[in-house]
């Protein structure tokens, strides 16, 4: 018997790898890893790659020999592709449930309360089949009365092929057995650090965690931990959030493909990140009131150097030339002749709505002058249509030899005209 709310947690299986395989179907059956920015470490891998003993987080140079010996396929991360595929998956999910909380690029929570219990699993399979048919992306789905239990259900939906990607734990008599089989550090919200604290106390699975006393949990894990425990008992403490929380900051940072030792190059890079961050602001109708630029050398070399500098804007802005003026001045402050820079980035904070700007007493304001806004809109529109960065500020540079390594990047199949898939019949 189940009454009340029913939540499904949807997770795209090996999402980055699946996105790659949709456009290169031979990859479905080959071992495949996707690398982090700058081709540093493995951030995603499919089942066949796991079978080779590769782990997430392993550095690329350690597994690169498997390219020759085991036919390992390697791709640089292609966020243009993953972001677009994610948006399509989420849009499809929204046609299948009245309430969808987008939790991450490949995860969402849905409300399935309106589906009768008897047909729930069937409906969940229909969701998987629809996304598979429309986007080619395989999903798994865990169903329960709380988010934490739905996550737990999904853990098993993924693990056991006989479940066919769906596990409904709402009325399940075996809920206890499943929780007993779930390692405590795999409980949503617990993680490795608390997992270790709990394991040291002999609490090594989700069932033992569920049955701890409230007092003990509160004392050791705080109110956040208690919430997790209550959720495991079927008491919902984490509501479905349909509106994304307002953004607090925008950050754009990259590791360089090679060490940067010239001021002009460091400026080009920071200008590029600034322009990118400004585009993000405008896309969300925000303006920034404070900029931080940060730089560092390689963590693996001697004389590690890391520094940041920041400034406040008198009036919040999302106008790229204004932000460039400030960020480039900060680079001058941070520049050191003897440092080989390996990474830089920009962080924008004190974000406000672009339509309700607080003006200051000292500037000259001509509010009827909408040319800056129009110029930015024209640039954004053209870049959206052609390709991000096609139209850019001279400060961003031409040669850009510092650019992040992405030696194995696949095409931006869905977002770039020149890279669309070609079908021959
Ligand atoms: Mg996933």
Keywords:
single chain; 3 domains; 425 residues; 4-stranded antiparallel β-sheet; 5-stranded mixed β-sheet; DNA polymerase, domain 1; Dna Ligase, domain 1
CATH superfamily of the largest domain: Reverse transcriptase/Diguanylate cyclase domain
The count of domains is 3
Helix content percent band: 25-40%
The CA-CA distance between the termini, in Å, is 54 Å
Q: What is the C-alpha radius of gyration, as a whole number of Å?
A: 24 Å
Q: Which small-molecule ligands are present, each listed once?
A: magnesium ion
In spatial order, strands of the major sheet run 5-6-1-7-8
**What do we call the CATH topology of the largest domain?**
Alpha-Beta Plaits
What CATH architecture of the largest domain would you give? Answer: 2-Layer Sandwich
Low-confidence stretches: none
Q: What is the subunit arrangement here?
A: single chain
Order of helices and strands: EHEEHHHEHEEHEHEHHHHEHEEHEH
Can you put this structure into words, describing what you see?
With 425 residues, this protein is of the alpha+beta class. It has three domains: 1-171, Reverse transcriptase/Diguanylate cyclase domain (Alpha-Beta Plaits, 2-Layer Sandwich), CATH 3.30.70; 173-245, DNA polymerase, domain 1 (Orthogonal Bundle); 250-396, DNA polymerase, Y-family, little finger domain (Dna Ligase, domain 1). The chain has 14 helices and twelve strands. It has helices at 15-23, 47-51, 60-63, 65-70, 79-94, 120-135, 147-159, 175-181, 191-200, 206-210, 214-232, 263-283, 320-334, 371-385, and strands spanning 7-12, 32-35, 42-45, 73-76, 100-104, 107-111, 139-144, 166-168, 250-260, 286-297, 306-317, 341-353. Strands 5-6-1-7-8 form a five-stranded mixed sheet. Strands 9-12-10-11 form a four-stranded antiparallel sheet, covered by helices on one side. α5 packs across α6 and α12 runs antiparallel to α13 (320-334). The longest helix has 21 residues, at 263-283. The model has no long low-confidence stretch (mean pLDDT 91). It binds magnesium ion. Magnesium ion is lined by residues 11-12, 15, 106.
